[in-house]
Write a structure and sequence with these properties.
mainly alpha; rod-shaped
């Protein structure tokens, strides 16, 4: 039996918000790398793209925790909801297999 989640199910909300959070973090890395590359070219000291990308990732990690706190909190809450639903489904299946229902 395959579980087909409804459009407003916790699994769909989790997938949507997780994708948004991931895209937001990636966009932040791209913006920071562009800023690093722009400033370095203005100063006249070109920085390789790979170095700028590495620094952008390092800078974006803690910054995304602050900037995207609301979205991260929603993802965490939805992970908990999906986990609780999975636990409930597992317990129901076990009780059916024991013959309790």
């Amino acid at each position: 039996m395959i579980d087909n989640p409804t459009p407003s199910s916790p699994k769909n909300k989790l997938a949507r918000n997780l994708a948004l959070y991931t895209l937001a973090r990636l966009a932040l890395v791209v913006v920071i790398a562009a800023i690093i590359l722009g400033v370095s070219s203005l100063v006249g000291a070109p920085i390789p793209l790979l170095v700028a990308a590495i620094f952008a990732v390092i800078i974006a990690m803690p910054l995304s925790l602050v900037l995207f706190k609301k979205l991260r909190t929603q993802v965490n809450e939805q992970i908990s909801a999906v986990d609780a639903q999975r636990r409930q489904d597992r317990d129901e299946l076990r009780s059916k297999l024991r013959g309790d229902r």
